[in-house]
Automatic annotation (TrEMBL):
<keyword id="KW-0067">ATP-binding</keyword>
<dbReference type="Pfam" id="PF00781">
    <property type="entry name" value="DAGK_cat"/>
</dbReference>
<comment type="similarity">
    <text>Belongs to the diacylglycerol/lipid kinase family.</text>
</comment>
<keyword id="KW-0594">Phospholipid biosynthesis</keyword>
<keyword id="KW-0418">Kinase</keyword>
<keyword id="KW-0460">Magnesium</keyword>
<dbReference type="InterPro" id="IPR017438">
    <property type="entry name" value="ATP-NAD_kinase_N"/>
</dbReference>
<dbReference type="InterPro" id="IPR001206">
    <property type="entry name" value="Diacylglycerol_kinase_cat_dom"/>
</dbReference>
<keyword id="KW-0479">Metal-binding</keyword>
<keyword id="KW-0808">Transferase</keyword>
<dbReference type="InterPro" id="IPR045540">
    <property type="entry name" value="YegS/DAGK_C"/>
</dbReference>
<keyword id="KW-0443">Lipid metabolism</keyword>
<dbReference type="GO" id="GO:0046872">
    <property type="term" value="F:metal ion binding"/>
</dbReference>
<feature type="domain" description="DAGKc">
    <location>
        <begin position="1"/>
        <end position="130"/>
    </location>
</feature>
<protein>
    <submittedName>
        <fullName>Diacylglycerol kinase</fullName>
    </submittedName>
</protein>
<dbReference type="InterPro" id="IPR050187">
    <property type="entry name" value="Lipid_Phosphate_FormReg"/>
</dbReference>
<dbReference type="InterPro" id="IPR005218">
    <property type="entry name" value="Diacylglycerol/lipid_kinase"/>
</dbReference>
C-alpha cells in the first residue's frame, strides 16, 4: 500500500480538522493509501517533519493556506524530495488553490482528491528560498502579512480588507530597480509584486494572463498615486484590467532582480520575511499537484 503524509498547521487548532482528517482517510484509503498525520510547530513550521522523514511518502497533503504550502515546498526542495502534493485549503486567501481548480471548501477538496492523477506547475526561487507563487514589496502587501492569526480566524478575508483600509492613506514610497534579461528600469513605487499566478490576495484576476504553468514571472509595479486615484486602481484590479492604469508598469520575464534601498520586509506567499535584494526565477513545471474531481457522479 502506498503512503500519504498529511501536514496540518498546528496554529489553526487540532480540533478544527477532525472532519477533514476523517474525510481524507476515507478518500485516500479507497485509492490505496495508508495515511498518517503530522502537525507543524510554531518554531520551525514543517522543517522538523520533513527533516525527520526516514522515507519520503508517495503523496504529501497540506491542510492550510498559502504560507504553509510555501514552507512545505521550500523544505521539499532543500531536502531533494520530489513527490506529488495535494492542497486542502483552510487559509484565508488560498490563491494557489483558486487558480488550480482546487475546491475552496476543504471537505469537498478532501473528497475529490485524485491521488493518482497530477499536473506540473511552476515554482519560484527567490535567492535560495523556494516559494509557491509570490513575492511582494511595499508596506501595502507587507501589512497583509502582519495580520494576526486571531483576526484572520475571526474575520476571514475581511481581515485583509480592514488592513488595506488602514494602510491605503499611508503608502510609503520607495525606489525600486527591476532588472531582467532584456530590461533594466529604476522607478518610484508603492507596490511591487512578482507572481506566477493570476490570483493575489484573493483577487483572482489581478494578473489575468498569468497561468500556473506558463513558465513566466508576472511583474507588476504601481508608482506613487494620489488618494483620489486609488479607487480607480482598485476598480480596474477587480475587473482584471489594472495594467490599463497609467501608474501601473507590467512586464513578464523568466527571471528578475529586484533591489531597493529603504524596505525592511517583504511578503512571500502571504508570510512576512526580512527584506533582501532578490534574484527571482521561475522554475517551470517543477512541482506535481494532484488533480481534483470537480464533477463527481
Amino acid at each position: 500500500m502506498k503512503t500519504a503524509l498529511v501536514i496540518i498547521n498546528k496554529k489553526s487548532g487540532k480540533e478544527k480538522f477532525t472532519h477533514i482528517k476523517e474525510t481524507l482517510r476515507q478518500t485516500l484509503t479507497a485509492q490505496g493509501f495508508n495515511m498518517t498525520v503530522n502537525y507543524t510547530t510554531a518554531d520551525n513550521g514543517s522543517q522538523g517533519i520533513i527533516t525527520e522523514l526516514n522515507k519520503a511518502p508517495d503523496l504529501l497533503v497540506i491542510v492550510d493556506g498559502d504560507g504553509t504550502v510555501s514552507d512545505v515546498i521550500n523544505q521539499l526542495y532543500l531536502h531533494n524530495i520530489n513527490i506529488p502534493i495535494a492542497i486542502i485549503p483552510t487559509g484565508t486567501t488560498n490563491d494557489l488553490a483558486r487558480v488550480n481548480d482546487v475546491p475552496l471548501n476543504p471537505i469537498k477538496a478532501a473528497e475529490s482528491i485524485q491521488a493518482h492523477s497530477s499536473k506540473k506547475i511552476d515554482v519560484l526561487k527567490i535567492n535560495s528560498f523556494y516559494a509557491s507563487y509570490l513575492v511582494a514589496f511595499g508596506n501595502f502587501m507587507t501589512s497583509f502579512a502582519r495580520v494576526s492569526t486571531n483576526n484572520k480566524k475571526r474575520f476571514g478575508r475581511l481581515a485583509y480588507l480592514f488592513s488595506a483600509v488602514k494602510i491605503i492613506t499611508h503608502l510609503k514610497k520607495y525606489r525600486v530597480q527591476l532588472k531582467t534579461d532584456i530590461l533594466d528600469i529604476e522607478i518610484d513605487s508603492v507596490f511591487t509584486i512578482v507572481s506566477s499566478i493570476s490570483s493575489v490576495g484573493s483577487l483572482e484576476k489581478l494578473l489575468p494572463t498569468a497561468k500556473a504553468d506558463d513558465g513566466l514571472l508576472h511583474i507588476l509595479n504601481i508608482s506613487p498615486v494620489r488618494l483620489f486615484e486609488v479607487p480607480k486602481i482598485l476598480y480596474l484590479a477587480l475587473l482584471g484590467r489594472i495594467t490599463e492604469h497609467p501608474k501601473v508598469t507590467y512586464l513578464t520575464a523568466k527571471n528578475v532582480s529586484v533591489s531597493t534601498q529603504s524596505l525592511s520586509s517583504m511578503n512571500i506567499d502571504g508570510d512576512l520575511h526580512s527584506y533582501k535584494d532578490s534574484d527571482i526565477e521561475v522554475l517551470e513545471h517543477h512541482i506535481s499537484l494532484v488533480e481534483y474531481d470537480t464533477n463527481p457522479q
